[in-house]
């Protein structure tokens, strides 16, 4: 059975990014159809941000209690694994998206469940879950918000064993006795620590070390924290092949010799835009990467009606950044439909552009200790032609001493010396994620250092590290 429908905008993908795009479009006075083949709410709600942090937080809270004289004496037990998993389940609504679908309806957005593909200019075909074929014609735009999919490495034998991706690890109902993790990125190290604290013996195989985008002192503190929880971190370890072990588990053979065996294997080696099967070929586009401007508009499309946001756009594969892009794109589409002044070719800091994607992207690794960074590292700044300097120090202020006995942390700021503004900030240590937004504001707002000096940190908080950084810099 074939049906037709018309709307102002079609948004393909009902994760957090697609929801934000559709919401801004409707708020702007247009109609929108949101198409989703899986759960409404997407990866972040059910298999990424929320469940992974729910798995991590109880262990961190227990560690915090044990880090202070007076409270550590009151701690008599270990983590209750069943309770941790049940709390994780509550954050995913037990993988039931009824609440999210209710929000979509309440926002005035039309939800269609099915798999969508582009068939022509502003034309979308949906194979619905009920077995119908629905042709949707968009008057103004189509937005791709399809997220990303795991990048599976070409390791010999990997296709012959049952291995976990991050989805499996964040939704697992049991904790394996032994877990081998291939990959030292954010998801790999976060899940390694979560499972170690829940009772797994964990080995991380990180060919290029862990958290390669962060400065070395931050990486070292995270590695130290992992090892304190019993995680064996093997840097420069490269898997040559994978196979079934004699005991029924999985055996990883390393290049240069040696093997590692686990009951479960987690492969966490990055993600790539999920663009396959969308019909991009019908528009003359390759289903690998898309070239988009700051408003999300895809290059090479006559009439400029196709947009991509979030992981699908391939810029910053982070939920918060994707939602930011979606807000800009949704506003731009609605404004362009009404031919609002300034929307066709918006200025850099217009609400129709995701300008911060270029140089003010914040990211947090929720391990214990945490690592948080926004903007550029010193090396990145200099590679971009900036006359940059760095100032760094250990976090050792009254607030950190009160936060935990034997607190260890590190902070760095990268300064554009020609403009005397911050272009990068990194923190590592317990609780430092809450420092990051102040750094993000300073970078996005291009606050002059002489003015930043007058932003007085409250005493006694860890934020006093800002004062110490500026003092060491020479203010």
From TrEMBL:
Family, similarity comment: Belongs to the class-I pyridine nucleotide-disulfide oxidoreductase family.
Cofactor: FAD
FAD/NAD(P)-binding domain: residues covered: 8-320
Protein name (record): NAD(P)/FAD-dependent oxidoreductase
Keywords: FAD, Flavoprotein, NAD
Pfam families: Pyr_redox_2, Pyr_redox_dim
Residue intervals of the Pyridine nucleotide-disulphide oxidoreductase dimerisation domain: 361-466
InterPro entries in the cross-refs: Class-I_Pyr_Nuc-Dis_Oxidored (IPR050151), FAD/NAD-bd_sf (IPR036188), FAD/NAD-binding_dom (IPR023753), FAD/NAD-linked_Rdtase_dimer_sf (IPR016156), Pyr_nuc-diS_OxRdtase (IPR001100), Pyr_nucl-diS_OxRdtase_dimer (IPR004099)
């Amino acid at each position: 059975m074939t049906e037709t429908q018309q709307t102002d905008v079609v948004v393909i993908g009902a994760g957090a990014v697609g929801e934000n795009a559709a919401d801004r479009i409707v708020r702007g006075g247009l109609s929108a159809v949101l198409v989703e083949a899986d759960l409404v709410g997407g990866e972040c709600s059910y298999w990424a941000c929320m469940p992974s942090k729910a798995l991590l937080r109880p262990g961190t809270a227990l560690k915090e209690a044990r880090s202070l004289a007076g409270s550590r004496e009151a701690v008599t037990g270990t983590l209750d694994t069943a309770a941790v998993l049940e709390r994780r389940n509550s954050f995913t609504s037990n993988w039931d998206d009824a609440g999210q679908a209710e929000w979509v309806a309440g926002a005035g957005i039309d939800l269609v469940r099915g798999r969508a593909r582009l068939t022509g200019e502003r034309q979308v075909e949906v194979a619905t879950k009920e077995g119908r074929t629905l042709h949707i014609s968009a008057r103004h735009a189509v937005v791709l918000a399809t997220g990303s999919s795991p990048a599976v490495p070409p390791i010999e034998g990997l296709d012959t064993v049952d291995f976990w991706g991050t989805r499996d690890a964040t939704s697992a109902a049991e904790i394996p006795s032994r877990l081998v993790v291939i990959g030292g990125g954010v998801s790999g190290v976060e899940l390694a620590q979560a499972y170690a604290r829940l009772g797994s013996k964990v080995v991380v195989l990180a060919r290029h070390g862990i958290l390669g985008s962060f400065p070395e002192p931050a990486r070292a503190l995270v590695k130290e924290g992992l090892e304190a929880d019993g995680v064996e971190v093997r840097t420069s370890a490269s898997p040559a092949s994978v196979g079934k072990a004699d005991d029924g588990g999985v055996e990883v053979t390393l290049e240069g010799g040696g093997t590692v065996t686990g009951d479960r294997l987690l492969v966490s080696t990055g993600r790539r835009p999920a663009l396959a099967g969308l019909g991009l070929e019908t528009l003359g586009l390759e289903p690998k990467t898309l070239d988009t401007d700051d408003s999300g508009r895809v290059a090479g499309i006559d009439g400029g009606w196709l947009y991509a946001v979030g992981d699908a756009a391939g810029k910053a594969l982070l939920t918060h950044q994707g939602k930011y892009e979606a807000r800009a794109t949704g506003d731009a589409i609605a404004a362009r439909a009404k031919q609002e002044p300034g929307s066709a070719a918006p200025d850099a800091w217009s609400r129709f552009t995701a300008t911060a994607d270029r140089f003010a992207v914040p990211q947090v690794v929720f391990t214990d200790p945490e690592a948080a960074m926004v903007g550029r590292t010193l090396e990145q700044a200099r590679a971009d032609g900036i006359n940059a300097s760095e100032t760094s120090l250990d976090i050792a202020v009254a607030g950190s001493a009160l936060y935990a006995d034997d607190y260890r942390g590190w902070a760095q700021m990268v300064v554009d010396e020609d403009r005397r503004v911050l272009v990068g900030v990194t923190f590592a240590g317990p609780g430092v994620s809450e420092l990051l937004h102040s750094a993000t504001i300073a970078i996005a707002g291009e606050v002059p250092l002489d003015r930043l000096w007058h932003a007085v940190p409250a005493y006694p908080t860890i934020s006093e590290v800002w004062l110490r950084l500026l003092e060491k810099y020479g203010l």
